[in-house]
Amino acid sequence: MMTTSAPSHAGEREPSGRPPVLDMRGITKRFGATHALRDVDLTLFPGEVLGLVGENGAGKSTIMKILSGAYSKDDGDIRIRGEAVDLRGPAHAQELGIAIIYQELSLFPDLTAVENIFVRHEKCRGGRPWILSPLDRGAMRDRTLDLLREDLGVVIDVDVPVSRLSLAEKQLIEIARALHSRADIIIMDEPTEALEAEERERLFATVRRLRDAGKSVIYVSHQLDQVVGLCDRVTVLRDGSHVSTAPRDQVDVASIISLMIGGSLEEQYPTLPPPAEETVLQVEDLTLARDFEKVSFAVRRGEILGIAGLNGSGKNALVRSVYGIRPPDEGTVTVAGRRVTIRSPKDATACGLAFLPAERKTEGVFTGHSIRWNLTIAGLRRTSRLRLRREQERQVTDRYASELGVKAASGEQEITLLSGGNQQKVLLARWLAVDPEVFLLEEPTRGIDVSAKADVYRHIADYARRGKSFVVVSSESPELLGICHRVLVMYEGRVAAVLDAGEATQELIAHYSVQRAEEAADE
Question: Which UniProt keywords are given for this protein, alphabetically ordered (predicted)?
Fold first, then answer.
């Protein structure tokens, strides 16, 4: 459906006749002998949301860093509002009205929203420098409220440290800070990766509000359905080159994937093997005060059970409680026919459970360590003979890295040098090496590209076929529908419904996410 088309060159205008606010032509960037970008064109119009997509390594991050002044280009031309510019650094880019909101937010956690927005731009009484006059805190607070309420249409507590706010609220403060700096070109890098469904909708409304106000947004995301639904045009990069730019009425997810990978992607979701009759995990009347109450479910051997629900529904708290991170107040857990007492993750691991957290960078990966160290940390006991232990670790690393298709120079490579998809494969391999009965997975494909997602889905299905069981918590309904035998939907800390794969739809999941089955039946 999506046709390969490069933007035309000098003098390009959008159908309304307005010239572009940003025009990048023939942008090339080399790192040694490697071309990160090769002759890339990118055009952005006033009041437009442009989707920028591509697999990891396609060049998205490089072009963002060039535009934000973090990298210099080797060749090519950049025009902003028709004027040729040579970006001399991030401060220069900001002076030209360019702001970037990275996936890793740059707010000061101990400062309030007001203080974060005005840091280095403080207002003082009488308009004098802050050294000579007291801060005009009232004016700064009023301006912050105006930015949030009038410009973005949201209400946020601006008087508490931002560390106490949700991720979605922090992102909105980043956007408000960009608006305060008078940015009219705003780059958003994977803005919804850690957001729940209702938070995403609020962010989308904010992006549309920015567009309607004449701001221009470059929206970088692996979530292709969001890109198609939100963006006016979509630009695809592959292997450092521009492949296509097309309006959204000429794109769909399948055609974008095809352009991203240079061919057709095999079915993203694998055929699921039927589970056995044996119950391998039984949870009965599990309760954790203020999070969930009397939750019961069972998982059969070889079954993949999905858990859905809105933010605050208790879905993440539930699996973390089963794993012993926050032990339940009441209820029982039975693993492979044996009732167990789990008061810590160590207990859970000993009982045959494994857990992959949603926050891979902060809770999963041990930064500063090798792939080998990360993969084997949970499975190999220390021995008195260092040489023997190292040899065992190398063998285990080679086996599982090969089995899961981890792309790396060697097992000694530092794990943070890998793509998100390869890091996730290492974390999955870490637990495969332990040989647990049940995997508890939080957002297993968050922040990884479409090919890596397909790989993760295939590995989950393969190990389910071998008798492993999975509980998958995800905020992506298509993921749950594609990879799970059943979907349990939570609402306000209770089970709202359990849907078989044959009956589950995105609409049903959304429906039960806001009310329990008995409430729906009363309508």
Answer: ATP-binding, Nucleotide-binding, Repeat, Transport
Indicate left, alpha or beta for 179 from its phi (over 0: left) and psi (-120 to 50: alpha): alpha
Number of domains in the chain: 2
Confidence (pLDDT) at 461 = 95
Q: What range defines the domain where residue 442 resides?
A: 279-521
Query: Residue 491: CA atoms inside 13 Å, Cβ hemisphere, count?
Result: 17
DSSP, residue by residue, 254-288 = HHHHHHHHTSPPP-SSPPPPPPPSSEEEEEEEEEE
Give the three-state DSSP class for 185.
strand
pLDDT at 373: 87
- Residue 36: CATH number of its domain: 3.40.50.300
pLDDT digits (tens, 9 = 90+) for 287-327: 999 999 999 999 999 999 999 998 889 999 999 999 999 99
How many Å apart are CA 485 and CA 305, to the nearest integer?
6
What are the distances in angstroms from CA 304 to CA 97, 309, 321, 479? Answer: 48, 17, 19, 12
Burial state string for 60-99 with b = 16 or more CB within 10 A and e = fewer than 16: bbbbbbbbbbebebeebebbbeeeeeebeeeeebbebbbb
Residue 248 tokens read as 């959204």
Predicted confidence (pLDDT) per residue in 222-250, tens digit: 888 899 999 999 999 998 999 999 999 99
